[in-house]
């Protein structure tokens, strides 16, 4: 069963609740916190960061951040469309939220004219690699800053 999700702008009114979201213990090495992600977005404008809170009903349950339509040739930036962060709060994992978010993101980037979405992950048991592969991402053979780069093409 896929959980219905909405992607919502982060505002002063929901920032604290979204920043309070946490992955399960032991998963912290695979995905940065929301606060760190927002800091990375602010300090890496060349990555064209686009981010949203993930809501199920009226409750924030996750966070997603992409590099959105990055012009070619920017050093150190994968793109043009790159799934930079995907975090589902530990209390809400296993309900189809991550899959629903990815489905929504793919729909949005396709509508913007993209032909592929890239992401990367740190290798390791309990990491997100199997989740991304099950969704249809395939390894590109590239390693970026120690992370395995994956591609979803359509």
From TrEMBL:
It comes from the Bacteria. It holds the Pfam family Acetyltransf_1. GO terms for molecular function: acyltransferase activity, transferring groups other than amino-acyl groups. InterPro entries: Acyl_CoA_acyltransferase, GNAT_dom, Sper_AcTfrase_N. Keywords: Transferase. Gene3D superfamilies: 3.40.630.30, The crystal structure of the spermine/spermidine acetyltransferase from enterococcus faecali. SUPFAM superfamilies: Acyl-CoA N-acyltransferases (Nat) (SSF55729). Coiled coil: none annotated. Residues 5-154 form the N-acetyltransferase domain. This is Acetyltransferase. It comes from Amycolatopsis camponoti.
């Amino acid at each position: 069963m896929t959980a219905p999700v909405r992607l919502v702008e982060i505002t002063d009114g929901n920032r604290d609740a979204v920043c309070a979201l946490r992955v399960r213990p032991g998963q912290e090495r695979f995905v940065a916190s929301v606060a760190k992600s927002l800091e990375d977005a602010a300090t890496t404008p060349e990555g064209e960061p686009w981010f949203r809170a993930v809501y199920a009903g009226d409750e924030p349950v996750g966070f997603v951040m992409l590099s959105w339509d990055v012009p070619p040739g920017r050093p150190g930036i994968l793109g043009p469309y790159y799934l930079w962060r995907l975090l589902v709060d530990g209390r809400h994992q296993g309900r189809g939220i991550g899959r629903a978010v990815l489905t929504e993101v793919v729909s949005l980037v396709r509508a913007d004219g993209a032909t592929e979405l890239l992401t990367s992950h740190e290798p390791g048991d309990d990491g997100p690699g199997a989740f991304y592969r099950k969704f249809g991402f395939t390894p590109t053979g590239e390693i970026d800053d120690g992370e395995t780069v994956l591609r979803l093409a359509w």
